[in-house]
C-alpha cells in the first residue's frame, strides 16, 4: 500500500496528499539513524560518568594504592635522612673529640644543577611533582650515604693508627718539673723583655738552669735544626705527624740532627740563653695543622690535676716574657 504525507498547497489554499518518494524514505531513515546515534552517545557518556566498569574501578584502586605508596616512601626517606644526619653529627664528635681531626667534608656535589631535563620523562602526570621531589631526595640521600661510607673508611684508618696518634701528640712538658725554676711566661700577649712593647708570645717559657735536659714531647722526626745568634738562637723543630709540630728554642746545645727520628721523652738538647733571650730558659711552641696553639693544653701525660691547674694559672699571668 502506497503511503502519503499531507502538505498544504498555498496556491490552491488547501491540503493535498502527496505520495512518499524515494528521497523522502532516505531522509526519514537518516533522521532516525541520527537520533538513535545521538541517544546512544548520550547513554554511553552518562554511563561512563555515573557508572564505572570493573576495569575502571581496578585502575582507580591501583592509582590510589600507588599514591599511598609514594606518600609512605616519602615519609621513610625523610626518617632515613634525619637518622643519617644524627649519624653524621656523631661522626663529627668522634673525629674532633677522639682523634683531634677535622670531620670528613660534607661536600656533596649538586648534580641537580646543570642537568637539563633530568626528570623530563616524569612530567605530565597527576603526581609528577611529588614523584620528582621524591626522586631528588633519594638521589641526595644516595650521595650522602656514599660520603658517610667514605667517612667511616677514614675513621677505620684513624682507629688503626690510634696508637701511633697517641704517641705523636706532644703530651708532656719539655722540661721536668723538678728541673724548673718557674714557668716564666705563657702563651698570649706579653711585654717583650728587650723592646718593652706588648707583643704576641706564641709559646711558653720554662725557666731552668743552663744545661737542663730538654725532652721531645712526642714521637716524631726532626725537620729543622738551626744555630742562630738572634731570634730563636739554637733551636730544634720536630714534626710529629697528624698535624702536630713542636719547636724548642734558645738551647745551649743541640743533641739531635735534621732527619733524625725521636721518641717521646728522648733528650734533644740542653737549656740555654742563645738568640734574643735575657735569661736561661726554654721557649716551647706547639703547632696544629700549621697554626700555633697554646702548649698548656697538651700537658696531660705527666702532670697531676693539681700540677696542671697550677701551671695553667701561672701561664695566664700577663707578665714579661724571656724572649
Tell me the CATH topology of the largest domain.
Answer: Glucose Permease (Domain IIA)
- Output the radius of gyration: 45 Å
CATH homologous superfamily designation of the largest domain: Glucose Permease (Domain IIA)
Let me know the largest β-sheet.
10 strands, antiparallel
Give the overall silhouette: rod-shaped
SSE pattern = EEHHHHEEEEEEEEEEEEH
Number of helices: 5
Task: Characterize the structure shown.
By secondary structure, the chain is an alpha+beta fold. It has 3 domains: 4-50; 70-160; 168-315, Glucose Permease (Domain IIA) (Distorted Sandwich), CATH 2.70.70.10. It is 39% helix and 24% strand. Strands 3, 6, 7, 8, 9, 10, 11, 12, 13 and 14 form a 10-stranded antiparallel β-sheet that branches. A hairpin with a 2-residue loop joins strand 9 (234-241) and strand 10 (244-254). The chain is rod-shaped, with a radius of gyration of 45 Å. It starts with a strand and ends in an 8-residue tail after the last helix. The relative contact order is 0.10.
What's a concise summary of this model?
The protein has helices at 22-50, 54-98, 128-160, 162-168, 305-315; strands at residues 4-9, 14-19, 182-185, 188-191, 198-201, 204-207, 213-215, 220-227, 234-241, 244-254, 261-262, 267-271, 281-288, 291-293.
Amino acid at each position: 500500500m502506497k503511503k502519503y504525507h499531507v502538505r498544504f498547497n498555498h496556491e490552491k489554499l488547501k491540503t493535498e496528499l502527496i505520495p512518499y518518494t524515494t528521497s523522502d524514505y532516505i531522509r526519514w531513515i537518516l533522521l532516525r539513524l541520527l537520533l538513535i546515534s545521538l541517544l546512544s552517545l548520550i547513554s554511553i557518556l552518562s554511563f561512563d560518568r555515573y557508572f564505572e566498569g570493573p576495569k575502571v574501578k581496578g585502575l582507580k584502586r591501583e592509582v590510589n594504592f600507588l599514591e599511598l605508596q609514594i606518600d609512605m616512601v616519602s615519609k621513610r626517606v625523610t626518617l632515613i635522612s634525619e637518622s643519617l644526619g644524627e649519624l653524621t653529627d656523631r661522626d663529627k664528635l668522634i673525629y674532633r673529640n677522639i682523634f683531634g681531626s677535622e670531620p670528613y667534608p660534607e661536600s656533596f656535589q649538586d648534580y641537580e644543577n646543570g642537568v637539563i631535563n633530568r626528570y623530563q620523562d616524569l612530567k605530565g602526570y597527576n603526581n609528577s611533582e611529588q614523584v620528582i621531589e621524591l626522586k631528588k631526595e633519594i638521589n641526595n640521600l644516595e650521595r650522602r650515604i656514599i660520603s658517610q661510607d667514605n667517612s667511616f673508611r677514614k675513621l677505620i684508618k684513624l682507629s688503626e693508627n690510634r696508637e701511633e696518634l697517641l704517641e705523636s701528640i706532644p703530651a708532656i712538658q719539655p722540661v721536668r718539673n723538678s728541673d724548673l725554676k718557674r714557668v716564666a711566661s705563657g702563651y698570649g700577649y706579653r711585654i717583650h723583655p728587650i723592646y718593652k712593647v706588648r707583643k704576641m708570645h706564641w709559646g711558653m717559657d720554662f725557666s731552668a738552669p743552663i744545661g737542663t735536659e730538654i725532652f721531645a714531647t712526642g714521637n716524631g722526626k726532626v725537620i729543622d735544626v738551626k744555630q742562630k745568634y738572634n731570634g730563636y738562637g739554637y733551636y730544634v723543630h720536630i714534626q710529629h705527624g697528624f698535624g702536630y709540630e713542636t719547636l724548642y728554642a734558645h738551647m745551649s746545645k743541640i743533641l739531635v740532627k735534621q732527619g733524625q727520628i725521636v721518641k717521646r721523652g728522648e733528650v734533644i738538647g740542653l737549656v740555654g740563653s742563645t738568640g734574643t733571650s735575657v735569661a736561661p730558659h726554654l721557649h716551647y711552641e706547639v703547632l696544629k695543622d700549621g697554626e700555633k696553639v697554646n702548649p698548656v693544653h697538651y700537658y696531660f701525660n705527666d702532670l697531676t690535676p693539681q700540677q696542671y691547674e697550677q701551671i695553667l694559672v701561672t701561664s695566664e699571668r700577663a707578665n714579661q716574657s724571656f724572649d
